Amino acid sequence: MRPPIVLLLYLLVVLAATQARGAAAPEKLVGIHSARVMSQSFPWVAQEAGLFKKYNIDFNLVFISSSNIVTAALLGGDAEMTVTGAIGNVAAYVRGSSDLVFTGGIKNVMTQTVIAGGNIKKVEDLRGKKIGLPRIGGNGHYFAIQALRRYNLEANRDYGFVQTGGEPETLAALIGGAIEVGVLTPPADAQAIAKGFHYVLYGPDLKIPYAAACFVTKRSVIAKRPQVIGNFMQAMAEAAKLVHTDREFFYKVIGKYLRITDPAILEAAYNAEIKALEPRLALKLESLQATLDELGATDPRAKAIKPQDLVDSRYLDEMNKSGFMDQLWSRQR
């Protein structure tokens, strides 16, 4: 007979081994985001808050500038979830990539700004200028065209563009004098203002409808991994709650990932952007319709597509119907 203490240790080892075998390994999920900005920071928030661990996800987020390139990567199987603007995904859907699907929204209006220095004071001063932005075909490009059209300025006729490669690169080019004008979003615009630049056009005032930041995956991914995508969306819902209710924590996250230490810049950026961020991940159909309308001007196929064709709302519906969202927002952090 084994001595009692030896038997006890033996049983503890067996129990630990059994639990280890029964514990599910984290589900690996690769994501891509298209801009290092506040509206695409929810995965950062989830990572720092331990939400991916809570929902048993091993999430790897990769940065690729431009919605079009992110869309191509998703379609090519390089990722299973993306956080990006609508234009690349909607354009691909119109061309026949109907496997693409939107599962939730972060921002349904455009909040870019046009910022400059020197004698460029008003929109009319942009005639003949080159405007710096991350990528042709990205959110900033779409914003500039839509916003300046309201002032009877047309791209390639009245002004042109310079690609910088990303939001931080646009800011650096502006500060370094490589460009005179730049399209920026929070917090990069606040950083530029702190350096002495000024707004030529403040985009949030225009309230241009557009799915500027949203979650996009493929229908085939949902079919294969419905629970994993559902867990991801719950993690994003909790991240949204933190963004809206815990400024101190959010500032730490943004400061870490964007290397911003000035609290005044963080405060200014947050105050400008938070009003446009969706607390419950709503994706508004009019924001997708605006993109379809823009594409429809040159591609008749876009006119035959309804915005709801692009959306799978099962996860948002379930979180709302089950009471998950209400419980989330009723409790204190």
Major β-sheet profile? 5 strands, mixed
The helix-and-strand class reads: alpha/beta
| Helix and strand run | HEHHEHEHEEEHEHEHEEHHHHHHH
Q: Beta-strand percentage?
A: 15-25%
Q: Which homologous superfamily in CATH is the superfamily of the largest domain?
A: Periplasmic binding protein-like II
The number of strands is 10
The termini sit apart by: 53 Å
* CATH-defined architecture of the largest domain: 3-Layer(aba) Sandwich
Instruction: Figure out the total of helices.
Output: 15
Low-confidence stretches: 6-22
Please bin the fraction of helical residues. 40-55%
Oligomer: single chain
Task: Walk me through what this model shows.
With 333 residues, the protein is α/β, with parallel strands linked by helices. It has two domains: 26-109 and 209-330, D-Maltodextrin-Binding Protein, domain 2; 113-206, D-Maltodextrin-Binding Protein, domain 2. Helices cover 46% and strands 18% of the residues. A five-stranded mixed sheet has the order 2-1-3-10-4, with helices on both faces. Strands 7-6-8-5-9 form a five-stranded mixed sheet, with helices on both faces. Helix 2 (42-48) crosses helix 10 (226-245). It is globular. The protein starts with a helix and ends with a helix. The model is unreliable at 6-22 (pLDDT under 50).
What's this entry about, in short?
The protein is an alpha/beta fold and 333 residues long. It contains 15 helices and ten strands.
List keywords for this structure.
D-Maltodextrin-Binding Protein, domain 2, 2 domains, 46% helix
Topology of this protein?
Layout: H1 4-22, E1 27-33, H2 42-48, H3 51-54, E2 57-63, H4 67-75, E3 81-84, H5 86-94, E4 100-109, E5 113-116, E6 130-133, H6 139-149, E7 160-163, H7 167-176, E8 181-184, H8 188-194, E9 198-202, E10 209-218, H9 219-224, H10 226-245, H11 247-258, H12 263-273, H13 285-296, H14 314-321, H15 324-330
Parallel strand pairs: 1-2, 1-3, 6-7, 6-8
Antiparallel strand pairs: 3-10, 4-10, 5-8, 5-9
Helix pairs in contact: 2-10, 4-5, 5-13, 7-8, 8-12, 11-12
